[in-house]
Design brief:
Layout: H1 3-6, H2 28-37, H3 40-43, H4 63-88, H5 92-95, H6 102-112, H7 121-133, H8 146-153, H9 157-166, H10 181-187, H11 216-226, E1 230-231, E2 234-238, H12 243-265, H13 271-278, H14 287-292, H15 297-322, H16 324-329, H17 342-360, H18 363-389, H19 393-399, H20 413-426, H21 429-439
Antiparallel strand pairs: 1-2
Helix pairs in contact: 2-6, 4-6, 4-12, 4-15, 6-10, 6-12, 7-18, 10-11, 12-15, 12-17, 13-15, 18-19, 18-20, 18-21
């Protein structure tokens, strides 16, 4: 793969438009960032679970604040790589004019990386998949293709993000968000369909999957345009776009460190426990003295969080620069954070272990995850058969609750199910709970 082809300002849906750098305020890739910031799907992330669902009065991160922080880290990772390249190659800007935009491309992709996640995070994804694997949705298996069935039984937020960004929903403008090809490619962590993904031992790029069947041709068009490397075993499977590694690293850095900070705010981890976890990541011999001069506990934790993230940014950017050749050849088969120095990697493993034991399995977290699972399952039980059948007046009334933008003249069972999933997966946690209560008769809707 070659940076000259991998970095393209061509826009999805506007491929034949001449690219003119007339906007003195923003580059093409900065325009991507702004389009995402001002969009409704991005704003809805404010009420979507990151780790701690519906936390109440205590401020912890949601999907929106997480995405903003990931974008900040991603921009730094991209900028450091460009700076290092510039130091060893003085003619860089002349030969690779878009390389200086890597920070902007990565930050835009980071903003969008969670836009396809349903309410209640991974619990919501699991509920959707389970509905078709062993719930009422199992009866539709014979009505869809094998590839479509894999989409339904392995719902993937990453694939849903690509759909949101490229699909023309009813009444919307063609081209979706009309983002640049490079930004779109940088979002797709697993460049294959569900039927070709979810396999072990076949490469990192096939660990999960990155697009639904309706977006298959769209993604392949993007991959070919950017010169992405094909998998030798399957022409419809591609190796990762190099910038995916930076987007993934930014996400890994943020959720590992920020979850620890949030756990402290909620009283799950003590300040002492947080300090024991994060001090080894600071690479600052004076950090204990600095902490001793700070009386406010939250400020002490914030300082450690900032120093830890800074260390990991430097480490991951170093790995990306050092492994550039392997990345461009499509032969780099692990994440950047898995290749940091052994000492820091051990610290990260400890954080991961503590996070699983004390954070992700905290009773309050698990209880709401289970409730969210029931909510998402309940919504599918109502909307999928109602939209597919329209057999009774009740079905018609339930189907009428689906906004017009998600309705299309679909004849196939898969197409109709996809319309329902577009609606349900777009919901915020709060809206999903409210709608579930109303249609199940748990609470009565107001007529105001």
């Amino acid at each position: 793969m070659d940076w000259k082809q991998l970095l393209s300002a061509k826009r999805w849906g506007y491929e034949h438009r001449e690219i003119k750098n007339q906007d003195i305020a923003r580059s093409e890739f900065q325009r991507d960032y702004d389009r995402l910031i001002f969009s409704s799907p991005f704003r809805r992330l404010q009420n979507k679970t990151q780790v701690f669902p519906l936390p109440g009065s205590v401020f912890v991160h949601n999907r929106l604040t997480h995405s903003l922080e990931v974008a900040s880290v991603g921009r730094s990772l991209g900028r450091i790589f460009y700076t290092k390249k510039k130091e060893v190659f003085s003619a860089l800007d002349e030969q690779y004019p878009y390389l200086q935009e890597i920070g902007n491309i990565v930050s835009s992709a980071c903003l969008a990386h969670d836009m396809g996640n349903p309410a209640f995070g991974h619990s919501g994804e699991a509920a959707i998949s389970h509905y078709f694997l062993s719930g009422d949705g199992l009866k539709y298996k014979e009505q869809v293709t094998a590839a479509e069935w894999q989409d339904l039984t392995h719902f993937e937020g990453n694939a849903n993000a690509l759909r949101i960004l490229t699909h023309q929903f009813n009444g919307k403008e063609a081209g979706g968000f009309a983002l640049t090809y490079s930004t779109l490619a940088a979002i797709v962590k697993y460049p294959c369909a569900a039927i070709d993904g979810n396999v072990k031992g076949r490469g990192l790029h096939r660990k999960k999957y990155g697009y639904f069947q309706p977006e298959k041709e769209s993604f392949i068009k993007i991959a070919k345009e950017l010169g992405m490397e094909q998998d030798e075993s399957c022409q419809e499977v591609y190796k990762r776009h190099p910038l995916v590694y930076l987007v993934e690293a930014a996400d890994d850095i943020c959720y590992n460190i920020i979850d620890v900070e949030d756990a402290h705010r909620l009283g799950i981890l003590s300040a002492v426990e947080v300090e024991e976890l994060l001090i080894p990541l600071t690479n600052d011999g004076n950090i204990k003295k600095r902490l001793a001069d700070i009386n406010d506990v939250d400020s002490r934790v914030s300082l450690l969080r900032a120093k830890a993230i800074s260390t990991l940014i430097q480490e991951c950017s170093h790995v990306f620069f050092a492994k550039e050749h392997e990345v461009l050849s499509g032969n780099f088969e692990s994440s950047l954070i898995d290749n940091i120095s052994s000492h820091l990697k051990e610290v990260m493993k400890t954080i991961e272990r503590i996070s699983i034991d004390k954070i992700y399995n905290a009773p309050a977290v698990v209880q709401i995850e289970v409730a969210g699972y029931k909510v998402m399952s309940g919504l599918l039980e109502e909307f999928v058969p109602a939209y597919l059948n329209h057999a009774s007046s009740y079905d018609k009334k339930v189907a009428a609750l689906i906004p017009n933008q998600y309705k299309r003249e679909e004849r196939s069972t898969y197409g109709k199910i996809r319309s329902v999933l577009d609606f349900v997966s777009s919901m915020t946690d709060l809206y999903a709970v409210e709608l579930f209560r109303k249609i199940k008769g748990i609470s009565f809707p107001s007529l105001d």
